[in-house]
Amino acid sequence: MAESKDYYSILGVSKDATADDLKRAYRKLAKQYHPDAQHTEEDKKKAEAKFKEINEAYSVLSDENKRAQYDRFGSNFEQAGFGGSGFGGYSNAYDFSGFGGIDFDLEDILGSVFGGGFGSSSKKSQGPTRGADIRTNMSLKFEEAAFGVKKEISITRNEKCDSCNGSGAKPGSRIITCDKCGGRGKIQMTQNTIMGAFSTVKTCDKCNGTGKVIETPCEKCSGKGIVRKSRKIEINVPAGIDDGQAISLRGEGDAGKKGGPNGDLYVVMKVAPHKYFKRNGFDISANVRVPFTKMALGGDIKIPTLEGEMEFNIPEGTTTGTKFRVKDQGIPILNGKGRGNLEFTVDVDVPKKLTDKQREILIEFAKTFGEEVNPKKRGIFW
Ligand SMILES: [Zn+2]
Ligand SMILES: [Zn+2]
After folding, report:
1. Can you tell me the distance from the alpha carbon of 221 to that of 338, in angstroms, rounded to the nearest whole number?
2. Ligand with smallest separation from the Cα of 210
3. Rounded distance from Cα 258 to ligand 1 centre (Å)
4. Which phi and psi (to 5°) does residue 270 adopt?
5. What is the DSSP letter of 332?
6. In this structure, which ligand is nearest to the CA of 159?
7. 159 Cα to the center of ligand 1, angstroms
8. How far away, in angstroms, is 219 Cα from ligand 1 center?
């Protein structure tokens, strides 16, 4: 028997999650791992497995009885029947007794288990379907994220075929009755299972349940009404955006089907690190090396800013590790006014090589503090 699955951790919720918590977690994950939202075959495979797992977890936990049963016995209760079909271990949730000859629509059950809103993955949906969202990354330099930039990205998406205007029919072609299902839109099948033979009714795959097919399909889209297109889209990146944040463009995802709305495009920012600066919210920080004489005497030093160098006055007797703050030299506030601050930490810069003259002066200097200085140790300490 398979190891019991932790449905709670699959959905990333605690054991006392409410129905709302579950729904929220499920929606988020289902969107993220929806196979149609993936853009490489590899991602798609991984996402499909995860997607199944998420659906299984949610369909159990969202049902009070099943959840109670799961909490007591784990996921392995009654693992008969539909193993592997995404039904996991809760086939007993449906009453298959007395099935003799009664037709039932397997997809109706799947539909009610998995809920609507799954867009194009559900063959059942014969009406308008919203297109899938597209998620893509954009690389930004540190300064581009700080000050904003206009940049193009390339995506490949489903678009409505302009040759047939999305209908899938060759212009002038007729709509005729589907020959596979005789116009009923459904096909009856008999299946033998360990629980006996029963009939299922499947949606006709030729007409997608509509009972009608196009006599001559559009040549450009092979009758699908949708074509894959590569597009360059200009993104207006606002000043102040940070690594991991996304810009959403409504309606720029995959085209909807049968008049359904388009999906959205999510562009996730990948911001490169900076040579000097670390970012924390809208503040930035850096280390600045300062000659030890300057730290002792105080005075103007040069510090890096996002827009070049600036002078900054440090007081006499500054010690290494001291932090200074320069107001309004940080990152511009995203969608707001003003800027964060720049904080820098001074590190003492000790010269590695001294001239004889410099060494003499330093020895004299040290003596004023009563320090013992042994010039023979030159090369080790100096
Ligand atoms: Zn077409
Ligand atoms: Zn048909």
Report:
1. 51
2. 2
3. 13
4. -115, 105
5. B
6. 1
7. 10
8. 6
Q: How far is the CA of 160 from the centre of ligand 1 (A)?
A: 8
- The reply to whether the predicted model has a pTM over 0.85 is no
Torsion of CA 3, 7, 12, 17, to 10 degrees: -140
Which of the pair, 87 or 213, is modelled with greater confidence?
Answer: 213
CA of 178 to the centre of ligand 2 (A): 5
* β-pair partners for 135: 266
Tokens representing 169?
């029919």
Q: pLDDT tens digits for 370-379?
A: 877 766 555 5
State the ligand closest to the CA atom of 187. Answer: 2
Contact (Cβ atoms closer than 8 angstroms) between residue 168 and residue 221: yes
Kindly write down the DSSP assignment for every residue of 248-309, as one continuous string.
Answer: EETT-SSPPBTTPPP--EEEEEEEPPPSS-EEETTEEEEEEEEEHHHHHH-EEEEEEETTEE
Spell out the residues 6+ positions from residue 7 whose beta carbon is closer than 8 angstroms to its own. 56, 57, 60, 61, 70, 75
pLDDT digits (tens, 9 = 90+) for 103-162: 333 444 333 334 333 333 344 446 788 999 999 999 999 999 999 999 999 999 999 999
- pLDDT at position 340 over 60: yes
Domains and CATH numbers, the chain: 1-93 (1.10.287.110), 278-350 (2.60.260.20)
Going by pLDDT thresholds of 50, 70 and 90, the confidence category of residue 297 is very high
Q: Are the C-beta atoms of residues 233 and 253 closer than 8 Å to each other?
A: no
Collapse the DSSP code of 42 into the 3-class scheme (helix H, G, I; strand E, B; otherwise coil) and give the result.
helix
Residue 93 pLDDT level (bands cut at 50, 70, 90): very low
Distance, CA 124 to ligand 1 centroid (Å)? Answer: 22
pLDDT digits (tens, 9 = 90+) for 222-277: 888 899 999 999 999 999 999 999 999 999 999 998 788 999 999 999 999 999 99
Calculate how far, in angstroms, residue 177's C-alpha sits from the geometric centre of ligand 2: 8
